[in-house]
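C-alpha cells help. Our protein:
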Amino acid sequence: MRQDAERNRRRILDAAREVYAEQGVEAPLDVIARRAGVGNATLYRRFPDRAALIEAVFHDLLAATREAGERARESEDPWTGLVAYVMHIFTGLAEDRGVTDLMTTTIPGIPSLEDLHAHNAETFGHLLARCRERGAVGDDVTVEDLLFVLAALGRAVPAAEAASPGAWLRPLTLFLNGLRSPGASLPGTPLAPHQLQQALSRLHSP
C-alpha cells in the first residue's frame, strides 16, 4: 500500500509539473489527475488544495532561485550580480508558465513562495543599495519600482518566447539600460510595499 501511495504521489507531481509548465498554476486539478492516471479523490488525499500541490511541485525550484539570489548578493560587482539574477529568473519564466505565475504574482498559502518573495525583495534592496553607492543607478530607484516592472515584463515572457525565442531579451535589456541612466529623476510617487503586494495580487485574480 505504501508503495502504491508513493507511486501515485510521484505520478501526480510529474503530471502537475507538466501541466503547470504548459497552462500555468490555474490549470484545473482534474486535468492533472487525468494526466497522472488517478482519480480526483486520490489527488485530494495526497494534496488537499491547490496551494499544497504547488508547494510540493515547485519547492526545489523556488529554493534554487533563492540560492541564485544569495550568489547575486555575493557578487563583487553589484550591477553584474543584479543582471545575472534577473537573467536567471527570466530564463525560468521563458521555459515554464507555472514559474511565470509564481514569480510575477502573489499566491497565498505557499510557504516557500512567500519566503522567496521576501528574500527577493531583500536581494534587490541589497543590490540596489550597493549600485547606488557606486553611482550605477539613480538615487530615486526603489525596490518596488524594480519588482513592479520586472513582474509586468515577466507576465509577457511566455507569449514573447512562443512568438520568437529570446524576444523578451530586448525589452528586458531596454529596462536594465534605463536603470543605468541615473541623470533624470523619475516622475510620480513610488509604490509602497503594501501597494506593490496589492498590485501583484490583482495580476493573479481572475
Notes: The CA atoms of residues 148 and 196 lie 7 Å apart. The chain has a mean pLDDT of 88. The chain has two domains: 1-48, 54-204. DSSP finds ten helices and no strands in the chain.
